[in-house]
Amino acid sequence: MKKLITLSLISLSSLALGAQDEAGTVNLGGLFEKGGIMMYALLAVSIISIFLSLLSLFSMRANLIAPANTLASIKAYISNRDYHGLIAFTSSDSSSLSRIVLKVLEFNKNHANSSKENLDEVAIMQANFESEKIARKLVFISDLGSMAPMIGLLGTVLGMIKAFLEISVGNMQGVKQMELASGVSEALITTASGLIIGIIIMLIYAGLRSRAQKLASQLEMATIEFLSSYDMTLVDTKKSD
Q: Residue 25 has what DSSP assignment?
C-alpha cells in the first residue's frame, strides 16, 4: 500500500514538472501549462487525495484498532474480575477495541440488571460505529477520484469554447483548421489528465478499502472474544450468587 501511494505521488506530481528539451518537444511540464486553469484544479485534487490517503493509512494501523496485546490484557483483567482495573486500562488506551470494552462496562455499570443480549447489542453498535469511523475518511478519497474526470471534462469544454472563439476571427481557411486542431489537442489534455488522476486515486481507494475491511473484521473478532470472556464471567457470577 505504501509503495502504491509513493508511485501515485510521483505520477501525479510529474504533471506539474518539467520544461522543453533541446529539440523543442513539449514534455509533461509543457502539457501542464497548455492544459489551462483546470490543470491547477486537478493538481489540487491530487494533492488533497494524497494527503487524505496518507492520513488514512496512518490511522488504519493494527495497534490503533484491535492490538493483540490489548485483547490479552482485557481478558486477563476479566479473568481476575478486576473490573476497576479494566476500566482504568481501557480509559487510558486509545485503540478501538478499548473504546468498545469501555462502552460495555459503563453500560453494565449503569444498568446492573442488563442481560447478555443487551451487552451484546451495545458492543455490536459500538463496533459498527468504530468500523464506520475507519471507512469514513475513504469516502472523501472516492469522491475526489470521481471528481477528477469531471474536472478534466470541464477543462476540455472550456478549451473547446476558447478554441472556437479564437478561430472565429481568422480569415484564411487553412489557418482556421490549424488553430482548431491545436485548440482541440490542448483542450483534450485536461480530459486525459483527469482520467489518469481519477484512475490512480481509485486504485489507492481500492487498496485502502481492502485494508479497512480487514481491520474491521479483526475488530469484530476481537469484540466477540471479549464478549465471550465477559459473558462467561457474568454466568459464573450468577451461579455463585
A: -
Distance between CA atoms of residues 27 and 90, nearest Å: 56
Vertex 69 angle, CA 63 and 74, to 5°: 110
Q: How many CA atoms lie within 13 A of 77 on its CB side?
A: 20
CB atoms within 10 A of CB 82: 13
CA distance 226 to 113: 20
| Domain definitions of the chain by residue range | 2-63+137-224, 65-125
Q: What is the pLDDT of residues 49-93, one digit of tens each?
A: 999 999 888 888 878 888 889 889 998 888 888 888 888 999 998
End-to-end Cα separation, the chain, in angstroms:
53
Distance, in Å, from the CA atom of 64 to the CA atom of 201, rounded to the nearest integer, reads 25
| Reported pTM | 0.72
Supply 106's cell numbers: 459503563
